[in-house]
Amino acid sequence: MSDSPKKATIVKESWDEPLPNETKTKTQTSAGSTSNAGRATDDAVDDSEDLPDDFAEVQKTISGERRRRQSKHIKGIQDLLSFPFSPNIRPLTISDLESCIGLEDAAFANPAHRCSREKFEYRLGVCPELCLGVFCTVIPGKAKGFEINTLRTAHPVETGRKDGAVSVMMAHIISTRSNEELVTDQAMDYPRDFKTREPNTAGLGHQETGRTICIHSLAVDPKLQGCGMGKLIMKAYLQQVKNSNLADRLSLIAQGYLVNYYKRFGFKHVGPSKASFGGGGWHDMTFELGGSPPKQND
Ligand SMILES: CC(C)(COP(=O)(O)OP(=O)(O)OC[C@H]1O[C@@H](n2cnc3c(N)ncnc32)[C@H](O)[C@@H]1OP(=O)(O)O)[C@@H](O)C(=O)NCCC(=O)NCCS
């Protein structure tokens, strides 16, 4: 939750309409299986001249948006990459720990707003099914000029693959469950003895039976920001949670400059948050999946 606003855009439109790529991008469910309503893409690099269909869809979306807004700042993801962008969206595991840390460090300018290594260990250990990542296969030798933190921590796509292809994390969402409707400092925290004590009786961190999914971190690598990556992962996440019936709502705390960003996904602005995490100044935002929405102040 960086304190350095990159965009102060006043945004009025919503993103209620589905992204053309949202059903075509390969998405693994929380159970770990792969669902793909479109073509069966691998995040392996396609060496052919033709770009994958889902990439073309992403491009169309981004180009359309770009034309509509005549924005000089929003670049297509592919414009930034020297290899085909074929996103693989999947739940995270503890093996993604180092990539999550690298991405978080790069994305959040304010260290106080970052999720610590221990918190990542806790969250990826206790509820990995609530955490999602966007990955893309990269052949290091062919990824000229592509230098992001998570390239260094990427895992090989297959053991022994000759081209050395690795699956690189580009964005992540990290969440836990809570019994409260809004994100509290207790939910943002974690039990210090989580490695030795089961179950969690401290009242801190993840509450297994909670019906609120608290999003603690949405992060896109800075080199890839502003070209739809945040929208891609958030829409995939919302779709997955809606389909799973595993919660009543999603809640998060956001700095003021991102309130409009989350509103466009359908989050409601509840008001100033009581959470003092990282120095405070947060706004409560919530996305009701059913039932009556909480009172809003705007
Ligand atoms: C905030 C963040 C996740 C957004 O991801 P992103 O990939 O850069 O954003 P996207 O490209 O998906 O943005 C899509 C749209 O949101 C708009 N947008 C971006 N930042 C915005 C902001 N602060 N307020 C309003 N709209 C914003 C873009 O203009 C774009 O609009 P368009 O689709 O109409 O052209 C990313 O910038 C990031 O990781 N920041 C650092 C970490 C952070 O602050 N995370 C959030 C708090 S947990």
From TrEMBL:
Which Pfam families does the protein's record reference? Acetyltransf_10
Q: Does the keyword Cell membrane apply?
A: no
Q: Name one GO cellular component term.
A: cytoplasm
Q: Which residues lie within the region annotated Disordered?
A: 1-53
| Biased composition, class Polar residues, residue ranges | 26-38
Ranges of Acidic residues composition bias in the record: 43-53
Q: Quote the InterPro entries the UniProt record gives.
A: Acyl_CoA_acyltransferase (IPR016181), GNAT_dom (IPR000182), SNAT-like (IPR051635)
Give the GO molecular function terms. Answer: aralkylamine N-acetyltransferase activity
The record's keywords, sorted A to Z, are:
Acyltransferase, Transferase
Q: What is this protein called?
A: Uu.00g019170.m01.CDS01
Q: Please report the organism this UniProt entry assigns to the protein.
A: Anthostomella pinea
